[in-house]
Amino acid sequence: MQPAGKGLFSAEKGADRLAPVARPRAAAAEEERLIEAIELLFFSYRDFTSDPDTILEEIGFGRAHHRVVHFVGRNPGITVAALLDILRITKQSLARVLREVIERGYLVQQTGEKDRRQRRLYLTEAGAELWERLVAPQRERVRNALAASGPGGETAWREVMFSLLDETQRPEVEKIIIKEP
Amino acid sequence: MQPAGKGLFSAEKGADRLAPVARPRAAAAEEERLIEAIELLFFSYRDFTSDPDTILEEIGFGRAHHRVVHFVGRNPGITVAALLDILRITKQSLARVLREVIERGYLVQQTGEKDRRQRRLYLTEAGAELWERLVAPQRERVRNALAASGPGGETAWREVMFSLLDETQRPEVEKIIIKEP
DNA sequence: AAAAATATGTCAACATGGCTGACATAAATT
DNA sequence: AATTTATGTCAGCCATGTTGACATATTTTT
């Protein structure tokens, strides 16, 4: 497979410089732009998760704990099943993390009132404090980033991010992230 | 623990409903928006990585292999040290993945011409094919997402993503992702 | 009332991909 | 000649995911 227009072997070995380019110039330029976007997403996401990672390390938690604390914080009283749906992991995976977060007093379970099979999840005060600690730097980072783009930048950013979702996931994600005031 | 109405502490204890709100209405709305953005980033990134994950699973590779193939593809002849810098993992972690990728014929090492201590990394043809397979769906996804936003959307999106980076990382990331045509 | 389905928990074994620490080798630099 | 650098490797640990099997309590269906 001859690499793409420019990244790969091309520049390094000079081969593409000699052979006529299979891919027209404009298409190659677009590809380059898209790959830059892909990498930007990779690096930005990495930095985006770095602040909470630092805090989590202090207290001996990992990202899995973070996700649990976050989504329980955002969805107080969420059932285990619903949390599994959001996280898309197995209940055995969740169990370990959940146990630790509960043992350390950040989260409590309450038997569902209507359906007593359910164990509804709530943050304790300590849990809410932890969540705030974790979310604060991310919120600041996102606030600054959105502010740094021109007017309409936030809307455009959201549109793009939303379009990155699988089409099938969009309604569900909308449900998950949008909370009524 | 009392559930919460919406965000964090507010409804959590119910106290805020009685006491005059510490956080003005507008600020609370902004917080909500920012948290939605945080979650959008989380879900979008998850879907963004899902296509390659499927392909990788078929061939018994993981994301670590993907990252190696990708960044070697984008930076032919990259040294091990430079790759470690990009990936920000230890050489022992990289070693395993690198060995597998090489053993299976996707990547070769060449002793550096100037500095013969270096093992410069290149994709083989099979490696370039794999890279193309992995990057194609992501490129399409990003292409569609960027196209879905209005004119100027791409620029705004990039600005926001770039601003999400740690300030200290920005020059380096710029170096890594931008390739001359 | 009995049977089936649902929500959750748990045990055990395993894979992946990070990590640390220690040490080895070859080549370049001082 | 001594030191530094680029890389490799061994050994063991940890976090977080997986599958499969099975248990319990509760609700729903028959």
Outline of this structure?
Two copies of one chain form a homodimer. Chain A is mostly helical.
Q: How would you describe this structure in keywords?
A:
181 residues; two-stranded antiparallel sheet; DNA-binding; homodimer; mainly alpha
Would you mind describing this structure in some detail?
2 copies of one chain form a homodimer. Chain A has a two-stranded antiparallel ribbon. The longest helix of chain A has 24 residues. Helix content of chain A is 66%, strand content 6%. Chain A is mainly alpha-helical. Chain A is elongated. Chain A starts with 7 loop residues before the first helix and ends with a helix. At the A-B interface, helix 1, helix 3, helix 8, helix 9 and helix 10 of A face helix 1, helix 3, helix 8, helix 9 and helix 10 of B. Chain A binds a DNA duplex (30 and 30 nucleotides) through helix 7.
Helices and strands in order:
2 copies of one chain form a homodimer.
Chain A: H1 8-13, H2 15-18, H3 25-48, H4 50-58, H5 63-74, H6 80-87, H7 91-103, E1 107-111, E2 119-123, H8 125-148, H9 153-164, H10 170-177
Antiparallel strand pairs in A: 1-2
Helix pairs in contact in A: 4-8, 5-7, 5-8
The first copy, chain A, binds a DNA duplex (30 and 30 nucleotides) through residues 62-64, 79-81, 89-93, 95-97, 112, 115-119.
